[in-house]
């Protein structure tokens, strides 16, 4: 259930019946030959499809995140950590004021990991509430499905290449990219990082069969739905 399709009365009534809601969070950053908004697109889509049968409201995706390592790629937008912390806290407060007490953050970007600490600090002030961080792409069942298909999977590789993350008219390379030097990458500034990564794919093929991608997506939606559903101990 998209919040965009509801009015304030509907939200009030829904929160009184069920205090669960979902906030997808993503990033706008380089994804090789895929959309710059890949992380945001995937987080929002998996959240909406997962929550729909449950009737749980899904708020619009927070598209911007922490992507400092990619800022030398045009189109990448990265928030400062202090900005991101304040923004996440404000969003959680807004959801809380609306009556929601069990909040699932469906995350599409590994760089957003500090949100777990932000949520923990917020919960210290909002006792009785619950926040669950669900990294949809690396949740156990979804990641196992990816690895079963092809263990050479990484940022901006085939594992993020769905029909809804492709850029119209862009043809994907056909070769399998060798793995980049992760140790060197971790020590690099954005300029050095761009030279190490090149087009943006970290490792592996750029595209696989759509039937394989549909199989991964089905697992991801089911696993995300289970996270939203509970338990909420």
UniProtKB/TrEMBL annotation:
One of its GO terms (molecular function) is metal ion binding. The keyword Glycosyltransferase does not apply. One of its GO terms (biological process) is riboflavin biosynthetic process. Keywords: Hydrolase, Metal-binding, Zinc. It comes from the Bacteria. Its cofactor is Zn(2+). Pfam families: Creatininase (PF02633). Belongs to the creatininase superfamily. This is Creatininase family protein. It comes from Siculibacillus lacustris.
């Amino acid at each position: 259930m998209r919040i965009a399709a509801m009015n304030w009365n509907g939200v009030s009534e829904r929160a009184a019946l069920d205090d669960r809601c979902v906030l997808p969070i993503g990033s706008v950053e380089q994804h090789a030959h895929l959309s710059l908004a890949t992380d945001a697109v995937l987080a929002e889509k998996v959240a909406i499809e997962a929550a729909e049968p449950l009737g749980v409201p899904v708020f619009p995706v927070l598209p911007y995140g922490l992507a400092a390592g990619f800022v030398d790629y045009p189109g990448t937008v990265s928030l400062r950590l202090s900005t991101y912390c304040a923004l996440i806290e404000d969003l959680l407060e807004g959801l809380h004021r609306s009556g929601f007490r069990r909040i699932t953050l469906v995350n599409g970007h590994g760089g957003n990991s500090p949100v777990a600490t932000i949520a923990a600090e917020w919960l210290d002030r909002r006792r009785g509430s619950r926040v669950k961080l669900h990294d949809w792409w690396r949740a156990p069942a979804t990641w196992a499905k990816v690895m079963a298909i092809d263990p050479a999977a990484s940022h901006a590789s085939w594992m993020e290449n769905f029909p809804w993350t492709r850029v119209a008219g862009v043809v994907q390379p056909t070769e399998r990219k060798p793995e980049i030097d992760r140790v060197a990458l971790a020590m690099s500034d954005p300029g050095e990082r761009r030279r190490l990564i090149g087009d943006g794919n970290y490792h592996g093929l750029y595209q696989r069969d759509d039937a394989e991608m549909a199989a991964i997506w089905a697992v991801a939606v089911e696993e995300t739905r289970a996270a939203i559903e509970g338990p909420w101990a």
